[in-house]
Amino acid sequence: DYLRYQVTLVRASLPTNTDLNRYFEVMNTRGQQLQQVDIVKARLMSRLVDDQQRACFAWIWDACSDMDSYVQMALTPKNPRLRDRIFGETWSWLSITDFKGLWGARTIADSHSPSTRTVVASMSLDEALAKYSAIGTSEPDDDEDNVRFRSTIEFPALLLHVLRIVNHEDEDEMEGHLDDKRLIKRFDDAVADKDDTWVESFAVELLRYRNLFDAFILKRQYTGTTGEDGDWSLQRLVRRLSKGRHTPGYANTFSTAQTDEEDGTINEPTNDLLMLESMLRITYTSPRTMHWITRLLGALRGRQPSAVAHLELADALREYARGKVREAFFTGEEPQGFSINRIVFTYLDYLLLSDSPRTDFRFSFRNSIEHFYPQHPDETQSGAVVSGENLNLLGNLALVSVSANSKFSNSVPKAKALTYEHTIEKQSPKLHLMAEITRKRSWGDEQVLSHHRAMVDRLRSDCIVSASRAVPDVL
Q: Among residues 90, 86, 71, which one has the least CA distance to residue 239?
């Protein structure tokens, strides 16, 4: 009786690979440290007036927090009928967009399926034991493929993006807007004078933008054909028929098909947006700097997702990147060497790919500026020489991975171009172009200056920047 009526059990879900012995020790000494996202959830729920509101809010919040699963599956696990009601017969887009309607749909579905009955109030000890003892013994998930995806950002970052859009905040990248360490303060400020209606509305908007995020923001995908490193993916969830059952499938976001692309091909509109997003993803690696995600999700505000053209979103991202390039390269004195911002290299690579499309190229994480003609050339190798005045020009530089930079070492351009052709192809279209010039001619001051002019002109013509500085003359 004491256990039944006097003891409250709290079930804590721990992150994978938690050191359980250390966790037990911490719990015994000072308790479990709450994360900011848990505190925000509790404070928002405290503004709701009844158990039904709180249960609905928690249901939506918990589903949206599972960032590595498409939200359709997290919100309606093993319940295709409920998925039909909430996301329509295609399962792609949220069709119920009011708080009470969402909870009503779930209540109806639960009433028809006793095994998935939702306990709105806290569970009794018997109910908790019965529910938790069944974990691991149920039927396999109807979305086993869902585990193959990894989100670009974590849940706290998504909350901050959605909060900016819901509050109609301007697009200035003010300090702290996407700082997850300020999550509590950002929400405390946002709800200071709000009531339960605002919290309900935010929950619906969170679900809606999470649905849009899944379909329009790239993920990392791991399949048998992508290898350990995975590949970029831009797909929406669709309903398919398999062996008489409705199961989830994945189609290119801008494909008209309602089934998977079995051969793994990516149609041109989807690939265009995917290349832009992956270019920005590898440029701005910290979630606090991924303002392009807010820009893209904001462009979807009030739109019917199925009617959005890829060019609208691609243009929004291109203009965002152009603004960054203007600020980094065409404002003030032209930067050189390690002062050149990463966006200049990555956007230039994107433009070169647009000029000569390559379906096999994928943007990868690169943070090392490579001097094609090295700063300290190997004295045992011979070839054309680049003077110190031109060594740090954009024309002699490319962005590569740390491992590639180490591999190239202090080799002269001719040696790099002939020895590491495969590595160069994978690293950068600009580096590939430089290697091609070297193989055909050589790589000295003349080639550096000519390539520099061509690259600056290509950036200028795209970013609509007038020529305001003279490029150094050939020596």
A: 90
